[in-house]
Design goal:
- By secondary structure, the chain is α+β, with helices and mostly antiparallel strands.
- The protein has 17 helices and 24 strands.
- A hairpin with a 4-residue loop joins β2 and β3 (about 45-50).
- The longest helix has 23 residues, at about 135-160.
Length: about 600
């Protein structure tokens, strides 16, 4: 018999009754039932109920043994009494009568419980993550993560992609988020950077002729935490392919995403391929965001013209439109029976959560003369204007419209948030559905109001639609790029692009954004030089692994799907990192600290 186990704690069934077996695991919990001591033994695979009788020489051992101690037990498998069977447990028809026991490791008093999995302060959970990971829900999430990665890897290999590893120590990039810097001991005064993404390396692999690349890539960004973003590091399915159009990229990624989600959806619906494609400008108009949650069946619209028609006396919004602003309408379908408090709460939400002046609204009902408007601002509109505005916005009897007004950027932001809030309040979000879409046709450039200049709006290395001809003959803000995002349930999983592989087009694009040739040659030397020796048309994308697992695990906090995450202050409480280093290490790196002075108690 094996020294530690003949079976796992998830193996035993009625077919094993009468056999003598050996199990090893953690003492999950103990229960004293009239002299008999029941012990639930847990390992990675599952749980088995064990029982020890008072006359056993090991009874006292288990009486005094704390939960989460590690033991090896041997004994005979017996059938549970019919009224004691547990249909919720794979091993629920049997139990093990303990005959021998060896304590492998005794547990001290626990800083957080494992059994029962009650809510517990996150700082304690992260400090003792090894205990937190023993809890069933989190343990299951991490196993799910590994299974998802394996599925993704198989699907990419089946499509002819090769997996390569790109450098972790690389050069700092002026684009994107803040880098993590690593001082070089052998080259004093210089620094490596941890890669924000393998962007330049994967493009260079295409220049090198490898055709189809992928990697489950670690990425590092020194940025603040959010519920859906981990500070420090994250993983992505990084892919690139040569001689590829935008359609080719979609044809690769769609079956991977749809296949993985169908595999792990556990009965939840998944958008069938091909995924819907929504132009960026349409997304901003209809949904108020380039990350639309398509589970919410609400289409927004621009109703600005109706507020400046003859006879309309709502001066607040009329003045906004005449001043160059906009008014967007957010339908609230089926709100006929909603009380006034529903609309007042939406207005209060806009003021408190969005720091907006508020949300005007009109309710629509069938009256004696047709569709009529109700509510505080309806009286400022002629009846025919209300009817035409309702038709334009796609609402009718029993529906309402909320209005977001202001500068276009502010109004659009409020529109998107209000659409989500309305959908939430009306119970329109189905948690058993995964709705995918592509956002396409992003603008190549945007106006930087702070610096009063044209700048890149998305990815400076994207190919403009129309290539050089577009750059030379079109207004910069009218030029579209071959850039695309993949969205699921309102969460951006990834951005991607068909790359600008021609040096002449790259120099011209950067010139239009105010960057000279010397800057391109200096900051992107490796890539621009490589392109001068023959680069194939190529493109790619990099869906985030952590967010994919989040969606499939049904959690809202990304730390629930990462094995050893940092907290929101970018600290590893378990390993006490980051930490100070001694002066010897600093001298080896030719570094001297210049720390900020601590404020005194007066705050000066």
């Amino acid at each position: 018999m094996h020294i530690f186990r003949t079976h796992t704690c998830n193996d035993l069934r009625q077919s094993h009754v009468g056999q003598t077996v050996r199990l090893s695991g953690w003492v999950h919990r103990k229960r004293d039932h009239g002299g008999l001591l029941f012990v639930d033994l847990r390992d990675h695979y599952g749980l088995t109920q064990c029982v020890i009788e008072p006359e056993s020489e090991h009874f006292g051992t288990f009486e005094h043994l704390r939960v989460e101690s590690v033991v090896t037990v041997s004994g005979k498998v017996v059938d549970r009494l019919s009224d004691a069977k547990n249909s919720n447990l794979p091993t629920g028809d049997i139990e093990l009568v303990i005959e021998t026991c060896e304590v492998q490791s005794r547990a001290e008093e626990l800083p957080l419980p494992v059994f029962g999995e009650p809510d517990y302060p996150e700082d304690i959970r992260l400090k003792h993550r090894y205990l937190d990971l023993r809890r069933q829900k989190l343990h299951k999430n991490i196993i799910l993560r590994g299974q998802i990665i394996n599925s993704i890897r198989r699907r990419m290999i089946d499509q002819g992609f090769n997996e390569f590893q790109t450098p972790i120590l690389t050069a700092s990039s002026p684009e994107g988020a803040r880098d993590f810097l690593v001082p070089s001991r052998l080259n004093p005064g210089t620094f490596f950077a941890l890669p924000q993404a393998p962007q330049q390396f994967k493009q260079l692999l295409m220049v090198a002729g490898f055709d189809k690349y992928f990697q489950i890539a670690p990425c590092f960004r020194d940025e603040d935490a959010r519920a859906d973003r981990s500070p420090g590091e994250f993983y992505q399915l990084d892919m690139e392919m040569s001689f590829a159009t935008q359609d080719d990229i979609f044809a690769v990624i769609e079956p991977v995403m749809a296949g993985v989600f169908e595999e792990f959806a556990e009965g939840r619906d998944v958008t069938q391929t091909p995924f819907p494609r929504i132009a960026y400008r349409d997304a901003m108009l209809k949904y108020g965001t380039d990350k639309p949650d398509l589970r919410i069946d609400i289409i927004c619209s621009d109703v600005s013209p109706f507020f400046v028609e003859d006879g309309v006396e709502f001066k607040a919004f009329k003045g906004i439109v005449e001043g160059g602003g906009t008014v967007r309408a957010v339908p609230a379908p089926g709100t006929k029976d909603k009380p006034r408090s529903f609309f007042d709460k939406m207005n209060g939400w806009a003021q408190k959560e969005m720091q907006a002046p508020g949300l005007g609204y009109i309710r629509f009902e069938d009256g004696e003369n047709g569709l009529e408007g109700k509510g505080p601002i309806a009286k400022f509109f002629p009846a025919d204007v209300l009817v035409r505005m309702a038709a334009h916005a796609g609402v009718g009897d029993g529906d309402a419209l909320f209005f977001a007004a202001g500068k276009e950027t502010d109004a659009v932001k409020l529109t998107g948030a209000a659409r989500t809030e309305v959908g939430t309040q009306l119970g329109m979000i189905d948690d058993n559905v995964f709705k995918f879409c592509w956002i396409v046709d992003f603008p190549m450039f945007e106006w930087d109001e702070d610096n009063k200049k044209i700048d890149f709006s998305h990815n400076p290395f994207s190919m403009p639609q129309g290539a050089m001809e577009a750059l030379e003959n079109m207004e910069p803000l009218d030029i579209l790029a071959y850039q695309y995002d993949i969205i699921c349930n309102g969460i951006e999983l990834s951005s991607g692009a068909i790359r600008n592989h021609r040096p002449d087009i790259m120099y011209k694009a950067f010139e239009m954004a105010g960057y000279d040739r010397a800057m391109v040659d200096t900051e992107f030397a490796g890539m621009i030089n490589a392109f001068k020796y023959g680069a194939p048309p190529h493109g790619g994308i990099a869906p985030g692994i952590d967010r994919i697992v989040m969606l499939l695990a049904g959690v809202e906090n990304i730390r629930e799907v990462i094995v050893f995450p940092m907290n929101q202050q970018a600290q590893d409480l378990m390993m006490n990192a980051p930490a100070a280093v001694d002066s010897k290490q600093l001298r080896e790196l030719h570094l001297r600290l210049d720390l900020p002075k601590e404020k005194d108690k007066s705050g000066s």
